[in-house]
Each structure stands twice: as structure tokens, then as C-alpha cells.
Amino acid sequence: MENLKQDLELLYELQKHDVEIYNLREKINKIPFEIEEKKKVLELENKKIKLKIRKENFIRLNSLKNEKETLLDSKEKKINKYLMELNIVKSNDTYKTLLSEIEKTKEYKNILEDEILELMEKIDKEYIIVKTNENELKEIEQKVKNEIYEFKRFTEKLEKEISEIEKEREKQKLKVNKTILSQYERLLDDGRNEKVICIIDGESCGGCGMLLRPQLINQIQKYHELVFCDNCSRILLKN
After folding, report:
1. Which long-range contacts (CB under 8 A, 24 or more apart) does 209-217 make?
2. The pLDDT of residue 194
């Protein structure tokens, strides 16, 4: 091949673009966007479930309080009714019975009042918890939105960089011998995500570090054909 050294040097420059693209792709792959998004969504769902339970408990306590208040009201009316009846009864037995009923109803009324007060305290506490959970949920939702936005923005930035490098790569491709380029890209297509062509370091392969045979080094220096490392099969180039 004529001007093989020059072709390899052009190919080496092309590879620099590929290495840049590969490194940027690796950064994108390492961005834990999907995993983090799922975690955050799960965290949000857990918060929503807890908030729902708290709200249901708040509603239940209020409903129970209302029931007891209704019952308390009925007891107060009953006491008033008994008091009115006291004024018109004629027998002592009936009078005593009414007094007994009034006393029992008052005792029950007192119990209801204590229960209502206790419920009101629970409701107040539950209200604070519900409001706190609502605020926490809003904060987490905003945090999730911000983090997901940053993940997307960073990914878009890297994709833009890759796009610019790919444009430069296409320009560089036009300068490279098509036959050599074909062999290079075939190696890339074989799944090699690292350098395909490397400069020898002294007497060693610049890719894997394996000591090269003297005959191989002589072949490289002649630039009659492509020379590959016996160990890693990279295309070898000498400065």
C-alpha cells in the first residue's frame, strides 16, 4: 500500500474522535438516570401512601368526634326532658327513677365529653402530621423534578458533544484510505470498544503492553502492509 504510514496516521487521528465518543457514551451509560428515577418515584409513592393513610385517619377521627357530639347532644336533650318531667310527676317512685336516669345520663355525658376532648387532641396532632407530610411530599416532588431535569440536561449536553465530534469524524473519514478504514471499522464492529490502532511504546504494544517480536517491529517500520499485535490484534503504528 502506498503512503501506508500517512494513512495510519490519519486513521490514528480518526480514532481519537472515536475514543472521545466512546468515553462520552460511557459517561452517559454511567448516569443512573433510570435507576434514580425509579427510586425517586418509589419514594414519592411511599410518601403518597403514608399521606393517604394519615388523611384517612384524620377523617376517621373527625367522623368519630361528630358521632360522639351527636350522641352528646341527644344525652343533653334527654337530661332536659327528664328535668321537665320532674316538675310534673306525682309519685315519689317515679321522681326517684327520673333522678336516677338523670344521674346515669350525666355520667355517660361526662364520659362522652372526655372522649370528645381526647379525640380533639388526636385530631389536632393528626392535622399537624398531615400538613407536615404534605409539605414533605411537595419538597420531594420538587427535588425529584429538579434531579430528573439535571439528569436529562447533562445527558443532552453529552449527546450534543458527541454530535459535534461525529461531524469532525466524518470529515476525517474522507481523508483515510477506504481499505484501511474498512478494516478498522470491522474491528470496531466486532465489539472492540477501545483503541483499535495504537503506537508502539519502545518495543512493546501501546495497547496491551506485550513485548513485540523484532521481526514484527521491522515489518511495522517498512510500512508495506498492516501489522497487528500478536496478543491483542490491534493495528500497530510507529512514530
Report:
1. 212/236
2. 67
